[in-house]
Design a protein that fits this description.
With about 400 residues, the protein is an alpha+beta fold. It has 17 helices and 12 strands. The site of protoporphyrin IX containing FE has 24 residues, from α13 and α17.
């Protein structure tokens, strides 16, 4: 029996990918997609296996065409020892004492500044006025870049994400992405050279001076990593914060539980990452023939892993289409480490290096927003609509609240 599932590039798919995912998992767990020339994989067990890659069957060579044209060569493309060394060079800045002592104050300050812009107004669009700005402001501030350039960073990362999600190959989107690479290099390289001469206490200086086994990053490496950070750390956390509020506003009793007990923010974040992950698709390349549910992926193929589907696999989660921060089959303790049982940060070697930073941003940001908006509610009759296929999240989220006096 041949089963048709909506094409991932169709408007029908974008309006409700979750329905299509269900059909793929049940009827076509390995699906050839002609337009992207890739095999689509939708079941949890298969996506997990591809990410963990215990047998060394997959590479990330797909990033050579997927992101190198906009960022230059980044950690995502590296493998083996080269990847391990690069990871060791950058990872310490995103956890432990660097995160706690240097960057938590940066996160708190940037969140507060944005909230100060609307805390007395009684209404705000949480996407346009907070979520799309907060993470990119944090990254730029961590890097020690000039605040007045924030609008440019925002424009650049939007172009980069459009390039990454350009599954239909729109020429204008491709050209805008490539222009961004040139503009960003012209902006960053002089700053990097200056920071090497006069290092400070910021993330950029740390990246310029980091050394592991006698290896340091070149100016080009540092620039490419900063470009990746703006996109990987901006767009994703942006969609996560908007997603948490959209999900909690749709479940007022869970919103009240989180408001009363702020330690539940981590649970709400973990469940949001499962239920509405910011990144829905991640690609890999097969190094050998690989057997997955539904057939064989020939060596040298591109594989599109559907995180958004895997995270709603009924074989893995009970009532997968229900948002429940108290669910017992998702650990909030492990949700931000490579032992996570949702797949929103991927797993294995390339597990998101910024997961703990993202958790800190979400815990601080959501906490401050709840304090500023004690009776937060969606604007009259507004129902958030998710947009996007590769990355996905609410496009706007207008809310009302009674300002806190004082
Ligand atoms: C909710 C927020 C976030 C989500 C959902 C997310 C998602 C992901 C995913 C799915 C990957 C794996 C890509 C792959 O395996 O091909 C990844 C890797 C990565 N992420 Fe994140 N990310 C988030 C936040 C951040 C932040 C805040 C930063 C940094 C500031 C960051 C930096 C990175 C980097 C550098 C990698 C590449 C790691 C490597 O190749 O070893 N991410 N992220």
């Amino acid at each position: 029996m041949s089963v048709t599932v909506p094409d991932i590039l169709s408007p029908e798919f974008e309006s409700d990918p979750y329905r299509a995912y269900r059909s793929m998992r049940q009827n076509a767990p390995l699906l050839w997609h002609e337009a992207t020339r890739s095999y689509i994989v939708s079941r949890y067990e298969d996506v997990e296996r591809v990410f963990k890659d215990k047998a060394g069957e997959f590479t990330t060579e797909n990033y050579d065409w997927q992101i190198e044209p906009v960022h230059g060569r980044t950690i995502l493309q590296l493998s083996g020892r080269e990847h391990a060394v690069r990871r060791a060079l950058v990872a310490p800045a995103f956890r432990g004492s660097d995160l706690r002592d240097k960057f938590l104050p940066v996160i708190e300050r940037n969140s507060r500044e944005l909230i100060d812009g609307f805390r007395h107004s009684g209404s705000v669009d949480l996407v346009a006025d907070y979520a799309t700005r907060f993470p990119v402001n944090v990254i730029a501030d961590m890097l020690g870049l000039d605040k007045s350039d924030y609008e440019r960073f925002h424009g650049w990362y939007t172009a980069v994400i459009a390039f990454l999600g350009n599954l239909s190959g729109d020429q204008e989107v491709a050209r805008a992405g490539e222009r961004t690479r040139v503009e960003f290099a012209a902006y960053m390289l002089p700053i990097i050279r200056k920071r090497r001469e006069e290092p400070g206490d910021d993330l950029l200086s740390t990246l310029c001076t980091a050394e592991v086994d006698g290896v340091r990053m070149s100016d080009e490496d540092v620039k490419a990593f900063c470009s990746l950070l703006l996109a990987a750390g901006g767009e994703t956390t942006d969609k996560a914060i908007a997603g948490i509020f959209a999900n909690l506003l749709a479940h007022p009793e869970q919103l009240e539980a989180v408001r009363a007990d702020r330690s539940l923010i981590a649970r709400a974040f973990a469940e949001t990452l499962r239920y509405t992950p910011p990144v829905h698709m991640i690609m890999r390349q097969s190094a050998t023939d690989v057997e997955l549910s539904g057939g064989t992926v020939p060596a040298g193929s591109t594989v599109t892993c559907l995180i958004g589907s895997a995270n709603r696999d009924e074989e893995r989660y009970r009532d997968p289409d229900t948002f429940d921060i108290f669910r017992e089959d998702l650990s909030a303790t492990n949700a931000f480490s490579a032992a996570a049982d949702h797949l929103a940060f991927a797993l294995g070697r390339h597990f998101c290096v910024g997961a703990l930073l993202a958790r800190s941003e979400v815990e601080i940001g959501v906490g401050q927003l709840l304090d500023a908006m004690p009776d937060l509610r969606a604007a009259d009759g507004f129902v958030p609509v998710e947009h996007g296929v590769f990355t996905r999240g609410p496009q706007s989220l207008p809310v009302r609240f009674t300002p806190v006096s004082g």
